[in-house]
Amino acid sequence: MTDAARTTATISRLGHQGDGVADGPLFAPRTLPGEIVSGIAEVSRLTSIRIETPSEHRVQPPCRHYKSCGGCQLQHASDSFVADWKTDVVRNALSAQGLETEFRPIHTSPARSRRRATLAVRRTKKGAMAGFHGQASDVITEISDCQLLEPALMAAIPVAEALALAGASRKTPLAVTVTTSEAGLDMLVKNGKPLDGPLRIELAQLADRHRITRLTWDDEPVAMEQPPVQPFGTALVCPPPGAFLQATREGEAALLDGVLEITKGAKRIVDLFAGCGTFALPLAQAAEVHAVEGEREMVAALDAGWRKAKGLKKVTTETRDLFRNPLLPEDLNPFGAAFDAAVIDPPRAGAEAQVAQLAKARTRVIAYVSCNPVSFARDAKTLVAAGYSLDWVQAVDQFRWSAHTELVARFTLKD
Ligand SMILES: C[S@@+](CC[C@H](N)C(=O)[O-])C[C@H]1O[C@@H](n2cnc3c(N)ncnc32)[C@H](O)[C@@H]1O
């Protein structure tokens, strides 16, 4: 390739996926604002990128797999740059809705703290290989030195490879979701061979040999040595296979600290999109909680965890689709006995319908936990228009080196 065929561009900002963006727009992965870069322009994407003038925020990526692996997007940027960029993503989303607020310093999970990951695992000529997909590619890259995953999760790599040898077809890679738990590895395998009698026996033996505490094969339970419990406050909960769990213990603790601070003093709390009780069960140490969640099995896990725990206040549960059927003011203020506070932690789409009802019910304090600054800002606008103040936002980065940002925010009803 001659230099004449190369385009030179100046990166002005990062896009939502963490790619550098130059005029055009021209997307240049793994570049930073202010950098002059050159490469081959293919429609709106720059490839074969050379950094002509590096940013002062460019650093040596800490992971040796970064070049080929698609698991991380921002290892070439300094921690301080990423912290400021993620905070600005939230600030800009709010400002697009005409809102501003106080920002607490971002909480970033440490390296090697991810407790859950989905590994791609395929059979090879020599055996099997587990890793992450490469950047925008189906190729699986090895991750033996991964800087993201907890050591206990790293230990799952050879186990996932053994599972592929036993039960992957030659054509389709397995998707193995691994979660570390108090009891050991909790593994859910998708895309495996059909579970016939001999395979079931082989997998059960393999689970025993590799100390997999629970093995689920395409939604079928294969082995459970002990329930793979997660601690939520003083309760121990056994989530359904593959159920949502905050990505790192540190990120969960930062979000929970915010939720506890916001709801402090409340005697009755409603926890909306409650999952398996990440917030509901710790909150029940000091308040009665009504936990509402769309997945029946998660609700059952939360309820079982509460029943086994000692010393918690009353927790009631409800399975409900909060998009189609949000709690209404009469549900939120039953018999005049209003909830003093609400916790809401919706999926990426946000909680448009439920937030409108919270505003109508005039629930005094709301702890909003979000994994999508754009839907959060939309819902924040609804609350502010209804007379709430957005007191502060704490950004929480538990997807270190990715473009994701999470947050917890406090809304209070103005008198
Ligand atoms: C971001 S997770 C939060 C879960 C929990 N608060 C936690 O921290 O572990 C969002 C939760 O919303 C649930 N969910 C998704 N769509 C829903 C809906 N339409 N109605 C009720 N719950 C829903 C998911 O099952 C998931 O548990």
UniProtKB/TrEMBL annotation:
GO biological process, one term: methylation
Domain of life assignment: Bacteria
Positions with a binding annotation for S-adenosyl-L-methionine: 246, 273, 293, 345
Organism: Leisingera caerulea
Cited SUPFAM superfamilies: S-adenosyl-L-methionine-dependent methyltransferases
Family stated for the protein in its record: Belongs to the class I-like SAM-binding methyltransferase superfamily. RNA M5U methyltransferase family.
Key words of the record: 4Fe-4S, Iron, Iron-sulfur, Metal-binding, Methyltransferase, S-adenosyl-L-methionine, Transferase
Database matches in InterPro entries: MeTrfase_TrmA_AS (IPR030390), NA-bd_OB-fold (IPR012340), SAM-dependent_MTases_sf (IPR029063), U5_MeTrfase_fam (IPR010280)
Molecular function in Gene Ontology: methyltransferase activity
Record-given protein name: Class I SAM-dependent RNA methyltransferase
Annotated catalytic residues: 371
